[in-house]
Amino acid sequence: MYLDQGWLSDIVHKSSPNFNQRPLGVAPELVVIHNISLPAGQFGTGFIDALFCNTLDCAAHESFADLVGLEVSAHLLIDRRGKATQFVGFDDRAWHAGVSRYKGRDNCNDFSIGIELEGTDDLAYTDAQYSTLRQVLAVLRGHYDLPHDAVVGHSDIAPGRKTDPGAAFDWQRISDVLNRSV
Hints:
There is one protein chain. By secondary structure, this protein is an alpha/beta fold. The chain is 18% helix and 21% strand. The chain has helices at residues 47-52, 127-144, 154-157, 175-178; strands at 3-4, 7-8, 12-13, 19-21, 30-36, 76-78, 84-86, 92-94, 101-102, 105-106, 112-118, 151-153. The radius of gyration is 15 Å and the shape is globular. The relative contact order is 0.22. The model has no long low-confidence stretch (mean pLDDT 95).
């Protein structure tokens, strides 16, 4: 796996319209780990891809009513089988963090990469997801020279508003890729 013009090789690419350019001179400095399932707690439905590509039929499930008109994306989704799909090039700004703050800086979308794991806060993530995440993080750290503390949860940049990736995420499973102890 390697990067070619902001896109990972050897994975599925589905272009999301929900992105724009990063501010001039700003490169990725942070990776934000999220979780998502649509409907909540259901996996493998294809609804996440549809949400990120603005093709979600919001009438398909009653819980989707709040998603009407929502324009969101992540750079990458890792499903329960460990399959990665990239929606936005890493050099561009995906719309994943919302209102956020990291080390005194607002608008984390400007300088971060968003990685969604198909899951929930309280259900263990799969070995395949950790394996793929570790590979992706190694590539990103090497390419962007990310500092050792540059991988955080959505809850770390939006405390009180977000809880993902949740207590089920085992930071120890990726600590060696981060070169830090957890």
